[in-house]
Structure prediction request, 472 residues.
Amino acid sequence: MGIASRAFRNLARRKIRAALVVIALSFSMAIMIVIPAGTMANQQAAESLTGNLGETIAQTEAVINKTMTQIDVSLSPTIGGGPISGITIIGDDVNVVSSGTVFGSGSFGGGGSMPMNESYCAEMEKISGVAAVVPILQVVEGHNQTIYPMMSTNGEKQEGQGFNITVPDYIINGLPLNASIINNHDVLPTNITSGRNLLPGETGKVLLSQNSSAYFGKGVGDTVTILNKTFTVVGIFGPSGIEDAQNVYMDLTDAQEITNSTDTITSMKVFAQSSDLVTSIASAITSEHPELIVNTAQDRLDGLNQLKSMYDAQLEIAQETINQTQIQAYVEIIIAVSATSLIVLFVMLYTVRDRTKEIGTLKAIGAGNRTIMGQFLIEGIMLSIIAGVVGIAIGTIGAPFISSVLLPATGTIHGGDGFMMADSSAAVSTVVVTPELMLLGFGTAVLLGAVGSLYPAWRAARTRPAEAMRYE
Prediction:
């Protein structure tokens, strides 16, 4: 009978002990392959988040730079004033008052805008240097969500104040589809990925973003029902900045009809005849209408830079967490490796002691030291191989759960609605045990089995036959 078959038979003779050892070893093996998978997933999530935010910010900056003559004008939002603003403060938490419809999304998710009468447009057109005024009705249709941003105080991370926001499902954008407006000013998306753009004078038609197209499950040529009215989808456009991800564009009269907002708008785009006139026009609007909020391209760039700073800080916190996770992962791997080696060591020492008479008998009938040592080495390696296979199976199936228990979460990075619309406010990490990790885990199992069995096997080989035969 060969050494390997004899080793396997010896393991089978003590099934319960072997099974308990395999279970203990398999969990150690599972930990050894899941922890690297978890740390890699966290790192990939952070890199994905950084890339998404960087791309979105760059796109938004490019859009702003193309609209240097554009001045955004709206009524001041009411904070805590009712369903228009969509936000109120109650106790220690901030809560959305309204659910569903919120008028206006604000600059980069900065809050809703008060509805105002369309007659403001005529007032704007009277200001010297104004080339055109475009009335906009923007209505957010969404659902409420509570978020707890991670903050850092004195170097310690903690959850910030909890608040609810209206997370957009889609955002209605109504504007007049006049040839003089849409042919001469950038008021409609230009990154058309399917179909075509809206045409002058069209009603009953919509232009969907890729995200809103996915939300409705509709494509070019399909009909979509928005607030009980049916529209035909004429085109799909791709992302071009923070505030484009969930947008649905349509004619202003259609938007006013479905939202019961006759002669109502939420903002105006005032276009100066040249960029040199923007400052004077903005000053004139503020002087004549102090109730209005005026945002120039420079104001929008400043707001974007503030968001960039905020996200840089939160990304830094996330990276700190990932660094701590990696340190913790190394410690846990060392513990798992040590535990595996010790389990094999003590089990094989016990096995040698338990089979002392058998060792003496084998040596008495001519078995050499190398044969005895090889048999116990193979038994330890076999145990580790079986445990490695079971551990890989456990780790592969239970990777997300085991990782969540053993490793701290990096947390979800949130911010203004604008970034949430851009699908870059959070990165979801998926823990996957790769074939490389499986192979590494299996190799480690064999190595630890050999290392853990080495001393017991050597000790068995050094046993003297006479002493072994007298052992009780």
About this structure: Confidence is low (pLDDT under 50) at residues 78-101, 106-111, 410-428. Residues 71-273 form one domain. The longest helix spans residues 297-354. The chain has two domains: 3-45+315-470, 71-273.
